[in-house]
Amino acid sequence: MKCSTYRSAWLMGVFFTAVGCGAPSAEEPDAEGGSQAVSGSATLAGVYGEGDQETLEVVVAAGRVDAVVQGRLRAYASSNGVVDQTTACQLSFSGVLGAGQNAVQLDVADVRGESQGELRLDGGKVTLVLHDPSPACENAYFRAGDLREGITLARRGALPSSVIGYRTVQSDRAYFYDASSGGTRRNAYIVKGDTVEVGSRGEERMNATFSPLGGGRRTTGFLGEEDFVPLPRGVEQLLGLIQP
To answer: Mean of the per-residue pLDDT values for the chain?
Structure first.
């Protein structure tokens, strides 16, 4: 199978033929070789953590050589069903998983902006390391060392196939629209530091769903790319090939 269009578009000579947030497609080897799928990417996607107060979500857009990994962490403590805002930890992350690798170097986005981290794969578990956790995340995990040394979480389920990524809001107010292009601005908005799950991408905006920490009414609509902390350039380029 020839993929010359993809091959010429990617600066590092990597080409992609699979699309999805899960297992790579089972295709015949390319005549020129290079049919190795990313090891572990098929089992990485899913939901991790102990329960609603600690949830790590991971999606994978898998190619034949590399894969884009995106996800988010949401954790908090509560009293009498009310979220303690000093522990309201939420962030999104992204990175590229190479063939044969068992760790992903992450770009992390939270209410403060961008930082770095790492996601390590270990069978049905993952370990998330944050090099510079926010005060709220430190409070959620009681000691800063927990996150800097790594928290290990077990997989507890799958994600809906409609979820293709996660993003962190950078706008002071990000208003939802009722259409992917044009349309009407709604009264509903979210604020800087909130995270959303992302679905389909339209001409001007992407489908996004916001779920409040601690439960409550979900809000779904369309948000513009300018509302989010930008993805790293390399991740954005790869997604453009895998999810055109």
So the answer is: 82
Q: Identity (one letter) of the amino acid at 98?
A: G
* DSSP β-bridge partners for residue 129: 118
DSSP letter assigned to residue 149: H
**Half-sphere exposure at residue 207, Cβ-oriented, CA atoms within 13 angstroms:** 7
Asked whether the beta carbons of 87 and 140 are under 8 A apart, the reply is: yes
| pLDDT tens profile 49-78 | 988 889 999 999 987 788 999 999 999 999
Collapsing DSSP states into helix, strand and coil, what is residue 179? Answer: coil
Q: Provide the terminal-to-terminal Cα distance of the chain, rounded to the nearest Å.
A: 19
Task: Name the β-bridge partners of 35.
Answer: none
- 130 touches 56 (CB < 8 A): no
Q: How many CB atoms lie within 10 A of CB 231?
A: 20
- Residue 182 CA to residue 164 CA, distance in Å, equals 23
Question: What is the value of pTM for the model shown?
Answer: 0.82
- Cα–Cα distance for residue pair 127/21, rounded to 1 Å: 20
Pairwise CA distance, residues 200 & 183, whole Å: 16
